[in-house]
Amino acid sequence: MRKLPRWLPLLAMLVVTAILAFVIRDFVRQVIVLPVVYVGWYGWIILSNLPHWIFWGVLLLVVLSVAAASLRRPEEARRPAPPPAARPQGPVTNWYRQLEQASSSVTAERRLARSLGQVLWRTRYPDLPYNEALFLQHVDDGAGNDGALNLTPAMRAYFHAGLQRETPPLTRRWWRRRDDFALNVPPDDAIAFLEAQLNPNHVE
C-alpha cells in the first residue's frame, strides 16, 4: 500500500481553513456589519432632520442626569452605617449566657459550676468573703460551720470540678480528665439542688 505524502494533511487543513474563512466572513458581513451600517445610516437621517434645539436639549438632559447620579453615589457611600444594637449587660444576662453555653463545652460547664458555688457561698455566708480554698474545705466536709451545706457526693464532685485548672484545648480534644465527668450534672439539677439549699423549707 502506497504511503500518503506528509504534506497532504497540511494541504487539506489549509483548504478547509480558506473555505471557513470565506464562509465566516460572508456570515459576519451579512449578520453583523450590514445591520449596524443600516442602523447608523437611519439614525443619522433621523438626527439630521431633528431641530437643533431638541438634539441639544436631550444631550444636556443626559449630561445632567449622569452628573446628578455621580454626585449622589459618594453621598450614599459616606452615610454611616447604623450602629449595632447594644447587647444587654447585667447579672441576669450573664447567667442566661452561662446556662445557654453550659452544654457546649467543658469550659462552659466548669464556669457554670464555679458560679453556682459562689452563689451558694455568698448566700450562706454573706459576711465572709468568697475564698476558693475555704469553699473547698467546706465542700469536703460536706457541711459548713453551721451545718448548712449538706452536699451529696455528686454535688461535692461537681463543685470540686468547677474549681479545677482548665485542660489545654488540644489535650482536651483527645483526653478528658476524671473530674471533667463530674461536670455532667444537668444545669437544671444543679440549680434545683442550689434552690433546695437556699430554701430548705420550700416544698414543691
Q: Any overview of this molecule?
A:
The structure is a single chain. The longest helix is centred in the first third of the chain and has 43 residues, at 7-49. The termini are far apart. The protein is mainly α. It is built from nine helices and no strands. The protein is elongated. Helix content is 70%, strand content 0%. The chain folds into two domains: 12-68, no CATH class; 106-198, no CATH class.
Query: Percent helix among the residues?
Result: 55-70%
Radius of gyration: 42 Å
Main sheet? none
Mean pLDDT: 71
Number of helices: 9
Approximate shape:
elongated
Structural class: mainly alpha
Number of domains: 2
Number of strands: 0
- N- to C-terminal separation? 107 Å
Which stretches are poorly predicted, pLDDT < 50 over at least 5 residues? Answer: 170-178
